[in-house]
Amino acid sequence: MRLDKFLASTGRLSRSAAGKAIRGGQVTVNGERIRTPDRHIDPETDEISLGGEVLTYRRYTYILLNKPDGYVSATEDGNDPTVLTLLPEELQRQNLFPCGRLDKHTLGLMLLTNHGPLAHRLLAPRTHVEKTYVFTLREPISPVETARLERGVRLLDGAGESYLSRPCRITMDAEGKSGTIVLTEGKYHEIKRLFEAANNKVLTLERTRFDTLTLDGLPERGQWRHLTPEEEKSLLAHLHPSQSQSE
Q1: Among residues 133, 191, 139, 200, which one has the least CA distance to residue 165?
Q2: Mind giving me the DSSP string for 1-51?
Q3: pLDDT in tens, 32-77
Q4: What is d(CA 165, CA 7) in angstroms, rounded to the nearest whole number?
Q5: Residues 106-155 pLDDT 10s
Q6: How far is CA 239 from CA 26, 116, 157, in A?
Q7: pTM greater than the 0.70 cutoff
Q8: Which end of the chain is more exposed for a tag (fewer CB within 10 A), N or C?
Q9: Residues labelled as active-site residues
């Protein structure tokens, strides 16, 4: 890998800024000061320092975010701030994107990554990755209606096509106005439309779990953190066994 490309991959610098830093003598490889941006290095074995700080190579980045209200789950938007604006600039330069979407006013757990194959696998219908949401409703829902929604009901997707929702698990509180729902698919506004099919309305919605990921360590809206090695390993297990993060 070229040295300037490696520096850019860390998110610390843009490609052009990396070239300037190298030519300015700010970068060393295994203790040797290098001034040629096209110098080839092995990011797995060479020690690269920028201004005396040793840089760590990560081909893929995995960020867990506690999404606040009012942010759009996209890489860019002409009207509203996106979830990526909640991250520092060095992470915004790493081509991250949301793995799945939450509505603008839906809160909670989001995974941001630049690992396309993993995101595709986690979102593929055949993978059946579970997502848990906490919700409140406009009015109580009966156990009979809850059971009907759990079995699956006929809905329209964003394109106006009819489909049968997959079975889900719903747990209601004693008053029948709030609870949790566990889905294995992520159709357009699915939870809202499920309860609309029962002549009800979702007032608040928060995702609290995505596969094995939870909001542990992120008590405040807008907070983020890198996944732990154990969390990364759990997600990567969804890929084909021959694939790994080091590919």
Answers
A1: 191
A2: -BHHHHHHHTTSS-HHHHHHHHHTT-EEETTEE---TT-B--TTT--EEET
A3: 999 999 999 998 899 999 999 999 887 899 999 999 999 999 999 9
A4: 46
A5: 999 999 999 999 999 999 888 889 999 999 999 999 999 999 999 999 99
A6: 39, 11, 28
A7: yes
A8: C
A9: 103
